[in-house]
């Protein structure tokens, strides 16, 4: 979600991690806009792979994402906190979600993904998932190559971490609830984002996942980080 107090008025979008040039643009821009929470995860996963030539421009991707209900604003928060409500909801069936233009442009794919957003009965946090067939990737590319590309892209990041490669390593690191489930609210009240690469080379399939707080790195946290950079102070200030 866009933060309600952040005007969408500038050509500069997404946090400093989007590209090597972004930090300098943030330092010199007079007006800075904040990205959506869903695009933060999708762009964070896909743009490095497009720039590395692993995913070709125009590849028709799918993104499935689940967010805490706070992403729906005060109205939805009232429903989930004070009224009878469903435990889970999928929406945006018109295929015209407002965040699709961001995803298309700033991922550098040049093609909007099929996007299925979902809201569930927890207040903050989200997981954004992008499934991949190896046939869509650069010839010869496998799961470890995806992980290596993301790790290199974010090696100097203060807030984005690429987690161990594959389910077994993620499980060994204690990052799955009950050794099976990727919990969406682990990074609540932080400006952190964790990226995961799950893969099965025999099946020639991979699943990219981004975990973040929809109100932190997905909204106000990213805004504060960008503000810090624009003001020339430590980007971790207040975060």
Question: What topology does this entry show?
Answer:
Elements: H1 22-28, H2 37-51, E1 62-68, H3 73-82, E2 88-90, H4 100-106, E3 114-120, E4 126-133, H5 143-153, E5 160-162, H6 167-172, E6 193-200, E7 205-212, H7 216-231
Parallel strand pairs: 1-3, 5-6
Antiparallel strand pairs: 1-4, 2-3, 4-7, 6-7
In what range is the share of β-strand residues? 15-25%
* Rg computed from alpha carbons, rounded to a whole number of angstroms: 17 Å
Number of self-contained structural domains = 1
Number of helices: 7
> Could you name the CATH topology?
Dihydrodipicolinate Reductase, domain 2
> What is the approximate shape?
globular
Report the structural category: alpha/beta
- Name the CATH architecture: 2-Layer Sandwich
N-C termini distance: 19 Å
Number of strands: 7
Corresponding CATH superfamily: Dihydrodipicolinate Reductase, domain 2
Tell me the name of the CATH class: Alpha Beta
Q: Return residue spans where pLDDT drops below 50 for at least 5 consecutive residues.
A: 1-12
Helix content, binned percent: 25-40%
Name the strands of the widest sheet in spatial order: 2-3-1-4-7-6-5
**Mean pLDDT score:** 90
Largest sheet: 7 strands, mixed
Order of helices and strands: HHEHEHEEHEHEEH
């Amino acid at each position: 979600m866009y933060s309600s107090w952040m005007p969408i008025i500038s050509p500069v979008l997404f946090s400093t991690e989007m590209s090597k040039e972004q930090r300098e643009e943030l330092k010199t821009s007079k007006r800075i806009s904040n990205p959506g929470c869903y695009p933060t995860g999708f762009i964070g996963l896909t743009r490095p792979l497009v720039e590395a030539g692993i995913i070709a421009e125009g590849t028709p991707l799918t993104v499935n994402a689940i967010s805490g209900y706070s992403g729906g604003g005060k109205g939805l928060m009232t429903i989930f906190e004070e009224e009878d409500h469903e435990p889970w909801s999928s929406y945006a069936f018109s295929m015209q979600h407002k965040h699709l233009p961001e995803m298309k442009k700033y991922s550098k794919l040049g093609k909007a993904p099929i996007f299925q957003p979902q809201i569930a009965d927890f207040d903050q946090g989200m997981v954004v998932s992008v499934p991949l067939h190896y046939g869509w990737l650069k010839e010869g590319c496998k799961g470890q190559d995806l992980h290596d590309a993301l790790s290199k892209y974010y090696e100097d990041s203060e807030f984005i971490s690429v987690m161990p490669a594959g389910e077994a390593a993620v499980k060994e690191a204690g990052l799955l609830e009950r050794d099976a489930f990727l919990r969406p609210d682990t990074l609540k009240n932080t400006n952190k984002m964790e990226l995961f690469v799950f893969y099965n080379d025999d099946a020639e399939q991979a699943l990219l996942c981004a975990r973040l707080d929809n109100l932190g790195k997905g909204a106000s946290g990213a805004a504060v980080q960008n503000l810090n950079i624009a003001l020339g102070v430590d980007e971790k200030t207040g975060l």
